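Hi R.,

Here's the chain you asked about this morning:
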Amino acid sequence: MLFQIFNMLKNPIPKVTNQFQYRAIGIINGKFTPHNIEQLNKGFLIDNKGEKIETVVLGKALSLIKKHIDLTKSYYWIVYPKNKNTQNLHLQVAGIWDPYQLNDFPNDSSKTNFSKLLEELDLKDNYFSVRGELVFVNIQKKEIVIKICPASKLKNLKNKNFKLVIKGELSLEHLNSFVSLDINRDGNSLKLIRHEIIEKDLSENN
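And the predicted structure, written out as tokens:
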């Protein structure tokens, strides 16, 4: 049964389709609590440890919440991270990963363990994939800054570049390189687990 479900599952964090694909996306298990029950697009995501993260819900996910989601229950949320420092994480909900409610699986599939399904997809709760340009290294604070450039070329405020501050250490010699990072969320912080240098010093190519 687990193998059958795995084959039907959509990966909440898809495989990269382009070597230089910029992105910042993660998955978090928790409950969404809106500031106002009549306005569901803003609130907190509260994880299993009771940590609160300021959260907004994007349009496509908002309709899912209204139609399918019980706000008293925990779900796996597909989110985009934003921050200005390592103590203040902000999330944008892009979707909900719920194989049972949002797909046509047999009734007994609800007995399957969500975390095991994630492991089959090489994922886990609080995992983030970040890909972008390393633009700053703070050796003393052990922090790095990654610039993310959205794929859309439209000159729209919603599509502008942004930066993520991440706890971790990378060599200064990697500045301006395109990097792929595996990140773990810890409270309101994003922490570097491992990294891969995709292309050294992008400035040399400009």
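The beta strands are 23-36, 39-47, 52-57, 75-83, 89-97, 127-138, 143-148, 162-167, 178-186, 189-199.

Let me know if you need anything else.
M.
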